[in-house]
């Protein structure tokens, strides 16, 4: 991998980590502010609860991106953990990563259709004032699309390892 690619991937990793922290801090600050406003002044922010629910979705998606970045996601894989390192384990990884690629690609397609239907709706809904539902829904196909590409990469690397021998994933 060239130095430019490494720096681009490092930048994207830092960006993902930064967005994740920004959203988490935002959730905590908004919730803390809401508690103070309700307990001290007896008022609250009407838009806070829908926004925090949306931010929870975003933090989940970004967390999934961070997990898949380094192939550290949750796997339901009872066989490969008991296999010795080598081509058979790589072949099993290829099957699992290919399946994950297909699932993420289908989710990308489906969530894009949901986003597009909402975007086309002239009476579309709003999460809160100034945040249309379609803008929030756009995060779903984006995140699943990135995960699709990452799983595809892992799948290709596992296939190469299976066919050619040792290739670092």
Structure description:
The chain is mostly helical and 169 residues long. The protein has one domain. The chain contains 5 helices and 2 strands, in the order αααββαα. A two-stranded antiparallel sheet has the order 1-2. Helix 2 runs parallel beside helix 5 and helix 3 packs antiparallel against helix 5.
What's this entry about, in short?
The protein is mainly α and 169 residues long. It has helices at 3-41, 48-69, 87-120, 133-137, 139-164; strands spanning 126-128, 131-132.
Features:
5 helices; elongated; 169 residues; 75% helix; mainly alpha; two-stranded antiparallel sheet
Q: What is the makeup of the main sheet?
A: 2 strands, antiparallel
The unreliable regions are none
Order of helices and strands: HHHEEHH
Helix content: over 70%
Provide the spatial order of strands within the biggest beta sheet. 1-2
How confident is the prediction overall: mean pLDDT?
88
Beta-strand fraction estimate: under 5%
**Total number of strands:** 2
Please state the structural category.
mainly alpha
C-alpha end-to-end distance = 12 Å
Q: How big is the Rg?
A: 20 Å
What is the number of domains? 1
**Structure annotation, total helices:** 5
């Amino acid at each position: 991998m060239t130095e430019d690619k490494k720096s681009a991937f490092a930048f994207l990793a830092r960006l993902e980590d930064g967005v994740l922290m920004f959203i988490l801090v935002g959730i905590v600050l908004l919730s803390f502010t809401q508690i103070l406003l309700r307990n001290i002044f007896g008022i609250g922010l009407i838009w806070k609860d829908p926004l925090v629910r949306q931010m929870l979705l975003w933090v989940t998606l970004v967390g999934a991106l961070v997990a898949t970045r380094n192939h550290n996601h949750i796997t339901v894989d009872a066989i490969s953990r008991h296999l010795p390192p080598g081509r058979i384990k790589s072949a099993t990884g290829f099957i699992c990563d290919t399946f994950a690629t297909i699932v993420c690609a289908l989710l990308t397609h489906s969530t894009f259709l949901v986003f597009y239907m909402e975007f086309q709706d002239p009476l579309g809904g709003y999460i809160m004032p100034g945040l249309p539902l379609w803008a929030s829904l756009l995060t779903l196909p984006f995140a699943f699309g990135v995960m699709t590409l990452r799983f595809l990469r892992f799948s290709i690397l596992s296939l190469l390892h299976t066919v050619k021998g040792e290739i670092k994933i």
